[in-house]
Amino acid sequence: MPSATSPDPVIRQIVDAMRALAGPHPGFRPVHAKGLVCSGTFRGAAGAADITRAPHFAGPSVATIVRFANGSGDPNVHDGAPNLRSMAVKFQLADGKSADILGLSVEGFLGRTPEDVLAFVRAQLPSPATGQPDPEALPRFLAAHPAGRAFVERLMKKPVPASYAQVTYHAEHAFRFTAANGTSRFGRYRFAPLAGEAFIAPDEGGTRAANFLRDDLEGRLRQGPVAFRLLLQVAKEGDPTDDATALWPDDRPLVELGRLEITGISPTSAADERRLIFDPTNRTDGVDLSADPILLARSAAYSISYERRTKEG
Predict the structure, then answer these.
(1) What is 9-310's CATH number?
(2) Nearest to 213 by CA among 107, 86, 102, 108
(3) Quick count: other Cβ atoms within 10 Å of Cβ 257?
(4) What's the distance, CA 14 to chain centroid?
(5) Nearest to 43 by CA among 225, 212, 165
(6) What pLDDT, on the 0 to 100 scale, is given for residue 119?
(7) C-beta separation of 25 from 70 below 8 A
(8) How far apart are CA 153 and CA 159, in angstroms?
(9) Measured between alpha carbons, how far is 221 from 90 in angstroms, rounded to an integer?
(10) Other C-beta atoms within 10 Å of 203: how many?
(11) Which residues are catalytic?
């Protein structure tokens, strides 16, 4: 895996391309730029210890930092704009360390390798000759990458959530989970909202307030915590664990690992945005990385992005 000091050139090119696509927004992430940082707690489920010995699933309550975000690189994007939404959770462990889980509002991913991601982003960049994107570039990419096309099609079926609290957030990557007795299995995380899922039509989204997702969350939190069940979709023998684009069959068992309760919006959310990194490779004993090349590239990409945004503005 490339280190933050000497990343693979492709990873640096991805960050450069994402920044070019997002436009000049000093101090912000090149994707998922508009975010909202919250606080909460997590308590592991009774059966979680049978899956993993990771301490944050052991049962006692764990403090969490949660970030919701729009997939766009524009920090001023309207909340009704069709796009991905994301939720990232940082578990604050007793030893001063942390562990992160990241999920998207669409299952799967758009590319299997960093090279696929680079090609996808570059297909949307303006041409130097015209100043506009080539209208055929993205369709060509999707035609050559059926899994990426399927990902975009899934997104377009649910492009605008009615609430951050009513989205299922799917982790793209598989991890190996090992229990105290040494047994292990692969699985993918999934945050399921207790309030159920709800989406609105794109034309309705544009009629709402620019920050209606924040307004909605604030209103819900005045009534009490916003809750999600953390589930693990458990792989069977032969299910691909190194391909973020590959969906596992719906009949794969879902095991409950615990319950996340979001209790408030951080009063320093804007400053928190600048300093926080959520990295799915940040994990503890009992959770190991798969061989997924996208997963193995993410830490270096985040390090480059963090270094650049913190030096800007």
Answers:
(1) 2.40.180.10
(2) 86
(3) 26
(4) 17
(5) 225
(6) 97
(7) no
(8) 10
(9) 19
(10) 9
(11) 32
The pLDDT confidence band at residue 222, using thresholds 50, 70 and 90, is very high
State how far the Cα of 18 lies from the Cα of 119, in Å rounded to an integer: 11
Give the tens place of pLDDT for each residue, 17-48.
Answer: 999 999 999 999 999 999 999 999 999 999 99
Neighbouring CB atoms inside 10 A of 224's CB total: 9
The pLDDT > 70 percentage for the chain reads 97
Query: Which tokens sit at 179?
Result: 């229990």
CB atoms within 10 A of CB 195: 14
- Contact predicate 254/30, CB 8 Å: no
Beta-carbon contacts of 49 under 8 Å, excluding residues fewer than 6 positions away, are 57, 58, 59, 179, 180
Residue 3 has pLDDT above 70, yes or no: no
**Is the pLDDT reported for residue 181 higher than 80?**
yes
In angstroms, how far is CA 113 from the centroid of its own chain?
Answer: 17
**How does DSSP assign the chain, residue by residue?**
---SSS--HHHHHHHHHHHHHH---TTS-SSS-SEEEEEEEEEE-TTGGGT---GGGSSS-EEEEEEEEESSS-TT--TTS---EEEEEEEE-TTS-EEEEEEESSSS-S-SSHHHHHHHHHTTSBPTTTSSB-TTHHHHHHHH-HHHHHHHHHHHHS-EES-GGG--EE-SS-EEEE-TTS-EEEEEEEEEETT---EE-HHHHTTS-TTHHHHHHHHHHHHS-EEEEEEEEEPPTT--SS-TTPPPPTTS-EEEEEEEEEEEE-TTHHHHHHH----TT---TTEEE-S-HHHHHHHHHHHHHHHHHHT--
Rounded to an integer, what distance in angstroms lies between the CA atom of residue 180 and that of residue 160? 41
The length of the chain is: 313
Cα 237-238-242 angle, rounded to 5 deg: 115
Q: Which two tokens stand for residue 156?
A: 């377009």
Amino acid at 276: L
| Cβ atoms of residues 186 and 177 within 8 Å | yes
